[in-house]
Design a protein that fits this description.
558 residues; D-Maltodextrin-Binding Protein, domain 2; Dipeptide-binding Protein, domain 1; Dipeptide-binding Protein, domain 3; 5-stranded mixed beta sheet; 17 helices; 17 strands; globular
Length: 558
C-alpha cells in the first residue's frame, strides 16, 4: 500500500513539474466550460443519499422550491411567491390532537417544464409526496414528507401542504425534490427496488428528468458528466453551450489539470483543499482571481457507536483529548479554518461560545482510558483490556483527498502516542458515501464533512429516528447510530419554537449535550477556496448547502 502510494504521488509530481510553466488561457470569449471536482456522485437521484458531488451537478439541472441565497435569505426558486403568515399563504391551523399545524400554499413557476416538454405540475408534486413518505423508498429526507398530513391541489400549478407542526422555518421546503411522475411512476412500482431502478441512475440522459438551465447529455461513471442547455428552461438563458464536470479524486492531480488546461475551473465547494489553495496562490495567484469563503461545511469524524469500544464515552472523550486540532489548523490551514466545538458554526446566529471544547490534554486522555479499562503495560506500549484484546480502531475517509489523508496521519500518530492502534483504510468517495457510511459499514471512525443551511436543525444526522437500517432502506443520515433522548427532545422542541430567544436557549443546550456526548469528533469549519480563471465571471460563493451552481445561468466566459 505504501509503495503504491509513493509511485502514484511521484507520477503526479512529474505532471505538476511538466505543467507548472503552463500559463492559464488568456481572457477571451468562451462558450464551453470544464469543471474539475474531487468526487464522482454515488447516485444522481435528487432525494437518495447526500453527497456534495451530486448536489453540484444537479443544481445545474433543477431548481428547488425554496433555497437560501448568497445573503442567507430564504427565497423562492421553483415557486412564485414565498409563503408567509403575513401574506396569507401560510395559515396556522388547529389539529385534532390539540397541536398546531400550518397550511402552506405554493404556486409552481408557470413556464416550468421537464426537458421533454411535459409541464411541471401538481401531479409531480403528489407523486413526489408518495415516494417521499414511503418507508421503503430510500429517500434521505423522508421525515419531511412524513410531516405532510395531506396535499390539497387547487389546479395544475398551485397546491397546499398541510404540515403536522408549525415550525420556525415553515416556508422552507428546500428538500422537496420534485420528481417527473410521467417517467418515474413505473419505476416506483416496487418501492423497495426504487433505490436501484430510478431513472436518474438507469436513464440519466433522458431530458424529461430535468427542468433547470441544463440537462445531462452524457455520463461516464467514475469519470465525467456532460451538460447542455435545456430548451424548456423558463429563466435567463445560460451562457455556456456545454459544461463538462470531471471527477479527479486526487487533489494534486486536480491542480495539475488546472495548470495544464485539462480543466478550466476547479469547483470551489468540492475542489482544492485550503492548504493546497494557499500554496497555489503563492505560486500562481497573479494569474487567477482567488476568493476564500468561510462556510457552514463541518469537517468531523463519526464514531460507529455499534463498536463496543466506542460505546464507552470515556474512550470517545480520550480520543478527542489526545489530538491537537489547533496545531493542525495552524500548520495546514494558516489559521483560516475554525476549530469546531460542535456542529454549529460561529457564523450562525444560534452559536453558543460557551459550548464545552477540548484542548489537547494527554494526561487527561490517558487517565480516561485507564479508567475505561484500557491500559498499557509499559510506557509507549499499545493499550489492551483485561482480556488482552488490543485497543485497535479503523479510521476511514475519502481516498485521494490530500488534506484529509494528512490529517489522518497526524491523528493516527497522536493516538499512537496514547497507546491506541489506529488503522487507516480509505475508499473512493462514491464507495465511501454510497455504501460504507450510508450502510454504516465502517468499523470505528469515518471522516468527512456535512454542509448545511443557516440554522439547520440536525434532525437527520442526530435524531435517533434517522439511524440508517436495512428496514428503512438506509434512509436518514445518523451514521454513528446515536441514540439520546435529551437530544431527540431538544431537536423536537427547537423546530416548533417560534420565539428566537427561547429557540437560541434550546440550541445552546443542544450544542452542550452534543459536545459532551461526542457522537463525533468535531474538527473544523471549512473555508472554501474559489480559484477563478480571469475570464470566468458570475460565480458567487454562498457558504452553505445551496451552492453556487444554483445560479449557473449567471456564469459567463467573457
Amino acid at each position: 500500500m505504501v509503495v503504491t502510494k509513493r509511485f502514484a504521488l511521484a507520477a503526479v509530481a512529474a505532471v505538476l513539474l511538466a505543467s507548472a510553466a503552463v500559463a492559464p488561457r488568456a481572457a477571451a470569449a468562451k462558450d464551453d466550460l470544464t469543471i474539475g471536482f474531487t468526487q464522482y456522485p454515488a447516485t444522481l437521484h435528487p432525494s437518495i443519499e447526500s453527497m456534495l458531488a451530486k448536489t453540484y451537478v444537479l443544481d445545474m439541472t433543477r431548481r428547488p422550491f425554496t433555497a437560501y441565497d448568497k445573503d442567507w435569505q430564504l427565497i423562492c426558486m421553483l415557486c412564485v411567491t414565498l409563503p408567509t403568515i403575513e401574506n396569507g399563504m401560510a395559515v396556522p391551523e388547529d389539529l385534532p390532537d390539540g397541536k398546531k399545524g400550518i397550511a402552506v400554499t405554493y404556486t409552481i413557476q408557470p413556464k416550468a417544464a421537464w426537458g421533454d416538454g411535459v409541464p411541471v405540475t401538481t401531479k409531480d408534486v403528489l407523486f413526489t409526496y408518495e415516494v417521499g413518505k414511503h418507508p421503503q423508498s430510500g429517500v434521505t429526507s423522508g421525515e419531511m414528507y412524513r410531516r405532510i398530513l395531506k396535499i390539497d391541489v387547487k389546479d395544475d400549478k398551485t397546491f397546499t401542504l398541510h404540515m403536522d407542526r408549525l415550525t420556525f422555518d415553515y416556508a422552507a421546503i428546500n428538500d422537496f425534490n420534485v420528481l417527473p411522475e410521467h417517467l418515474e411512476r413505473a419505476r416506483f412500482a416496487e418501492p423497495s427496488a426504487y433505490r436501484m431502478r430510478n431513472g436518474y441512475d438507469t436513464d440519466t440522459t433522458n431530458p424529461g428528468l430535468f427542468y433547470g438551465p441544463y440537462k445531462i447529455v452524457e455520463k461516464v461513471v467514475g469519470s465525467h458528466i456532460v451538460l447542455a442547455p435545456n430548451p424548456t428552461w423558463w429563466g435567463k438563458p445560460p451562457y455556456f453551450k456545454r459544461i463538462v464536470v470531471r471527477a479527479i479524486e486526487n487533489t494534486a492531480a486536480l491542480e495539475a489539470n488546472l495548470l495544464s488546461g485539462g480543466v478550466d475551473y476547479v469547483a470551489g465547494e468540492l475542489g482544492f483543499t485550503l492548504d493546497q489553495a494557499l500554496a497555489f496562490e503563492k505560486r500562481y495567484g497573479k494569474n487567477y482571481d482567488i476568493v476564500y469563503k468561510p462556510s457552514l461545511t463541518y469537517e468531523h469524524i463519526d464514531f460507529n457507536l455499534d463498536n463496543p469500544i466506542l460505546q464507552d464515552k470515556r474512550v470517545r472523550q480520550a480520543l478527542i483529548y489526545a489530538i491537537d486540532r489547533d496545531a493542525i489548523g495552524k500548520q495546514l490551514f494558516e489559521g483560516r479554518q475554525l476549530v469546531a466545538s460542535s456542529m454549529v458554526n460561529p457564523l450562525d446566529w444560534v452559536f453558543d461560545p460557551a459550548t464545552p471544547s477540548y484542548k489537547r490534554d494527554t494526561v487527561k486522555a490517558a487517565a480516561l482510558l485507564d479508567e475505561a479499562g484500557w491500559t498499557a503495560k509499559t510506557r509507549g506500549a499499545m493499550r489492551s483490556n483485561a482480556k488482552g484484546e488490543p485497543l485497535m480502531l479503523e479510521f476511514m475517509t475519502t481516498a485521494g483527498n490530500k488534506t484529509r489523508e494528512q490529517v489522518q496521519q497526524v491523528l493516527q500518530s497522536q493516538w499512537r502516542q496514547l497507546g491506541v492502534d489506529v488503522r487507516i483504510r480509505n475508499e473512493p468517495a462514491r464507495v465511501f458515501f454510497g455504501e460504507t457510511m450510508t450502510k454504516r459499514k465502517y468499523g470505528a471512525m469515518g471522516m468527512y464533512a456535512w454542509f448545511s443551511a443557516p440554522e439547520s436543525v440536525p434532525r437527520t444526522t442526530l435524531h435517533s429516528s434517522q439511524i440508517t437500517t436495512p428496514e428503512n432502506n438506509y434512509a436518514g443520515q445518523n451514521y454513528p447510530g446515536f441514540k439520546n433522548a435529551e437530544v431527540d427532545n431538544l431537536i423536537d422542541a427547537i423546530e416548533v419554537e417560534l420565539d428566537r430567544d427561547k429557540r437560541k436557549a434550546l440550541w445552546s443546550k443542544l450544542q452542550a449535550t452534543y459536545a459532551t456526548e461526542l457522537p463525533t469528533i468535531p474538527l473544523f469549519f471549512r473555508s472554501d477556496a474559489f480559484i477563478f480563471p480571469k475570464w470566468l465571471k458570475g460565480i458567487e460563493p454562498t457558504g452553505h448547502q445551496d451552492i453556487s451552481p444554483l445560479w449557473v445561468e449567471n456564469w459567463t466566459g467573457q
